[in-house]
């Protein structure tokens, strides 16, 4: 019985030693702070997007929200700015009305304007999307194309523009 416990005890001591050594030798993971960063939330005028924008405000971000409906955007922006002002940290909130299912040039122009007004984009949350209701064989092809444009191509456009035009270029500087 003792012969069985000795190797087990040796193994436990060895594992604890390796763990302790690695803990002190390996670099520590830095905590990512959102304070004073610039976040863009697509579909940020209501629902999950708006709640994500509130979370970003709570963490200290400047926030840009994008959606189609100007009235919803103005209301959400005011709510977000009120939340930001209550924190007393001089955070800014901006809204941009654009249909992200449209041409890449329009999206690029909006992102240029966003960066010009609030600075480089540090966080992109692609939240825009829609769901078609009805039986698949009853849906017209044009509705399916519109859904693909909004749910897929808009995300690709925003990501591609943000990555290629901003993150990569800044990393090279």
Summarize the structure.
By secondary structure, the protein is of the alpha/beta class.
Provide structural commentary.
The protein has 173 residues and is of the alpha/beta class. It has a single domain, classed as NAD(P)-binding Rossmann-like Domain (Rossmann fold), CATH 3.40.50.720. The protein is 58% helix and 11% strand. The protein contains five helices and four strands. The protein has a four-stranded parallel sheet with strand order 3-2-1-4, with helices on both faces. Helix 2 packs parallel to helix 3 and helix 4 crosses helix 5 (141-172). The longest helix has 32 residues, at 141-172. The protein is extended. The mean pLDDT is 87. GO terms for molecular function: 3-dehydrosphinganine reductase activity. Keywords: Membrane, Transmembrane, Transmembrane helix. The chain crosses the membrane at residues 6-26. Pfam families: adh_short.
Secondary-structure topology with pairs:
Layout (H helix, E strand, L loop, with lengths): L1 H24 L12 E5 L4 H12 L3 E6 L2 H18 L5 E5 L6 H15 L4 E3 L15 H32 L1
Parallel strand pairs: 1-2, 1-4, 2-3
Helix pairs in contact: 2-3, 4-5
InterPro entries: NAD(P)-bd_dom_sf, SDR_fam
Pfam families: adh_short
GO molecular function: 3-dehydrosphinganine reductase activity
Any idea what the radius of gyration is? 24 Å
Helical run tally: 5
- Average pLDDT works out at 87
Largest sheet entry: 4 strands, parallel
Please tag this protein with its features.
173 residues, alpha/beta, Rossmann fold, four-stranded parallel beta sheet, 5 helices, 11% strand, extended
């Amino acid at each position: 019985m003792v012969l069985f416990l000795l190797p087990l005890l040796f193994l436990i001591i060895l594992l604890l030693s390796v763990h302790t050594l690695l803990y002190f030798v390996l670099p520590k993971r830095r905590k990512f702070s959102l304070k004073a960063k610039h976040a863009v939330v697509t579909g940020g005028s209501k629902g999950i997007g708006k709640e994500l924008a509130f979370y970003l405000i709570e963490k200290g971000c400047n926030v840009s929200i994008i959606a189609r409906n100007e009235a919803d955007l103005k209301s959400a922006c005011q709510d977000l700015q009120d939340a930001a002002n209550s924190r007393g940290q001089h955070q800014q909130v901006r809204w941009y009305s654009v249909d992200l299912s449209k041409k890449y040039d329009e999206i690029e122009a909006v992102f240029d304007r966003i960066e010009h007004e609030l600075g480089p984009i540090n966080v992109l949350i692609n939240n825009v999307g829609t769901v078609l209701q009805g039986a698949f064989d009853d849906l017209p092809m044009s509705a399916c194309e519109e859904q693909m444009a909004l749910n897929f191509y808009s995300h690709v456009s925003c990501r591609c523009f943000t990555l290629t035009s901003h993150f990569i270029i800044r990393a090279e500087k």
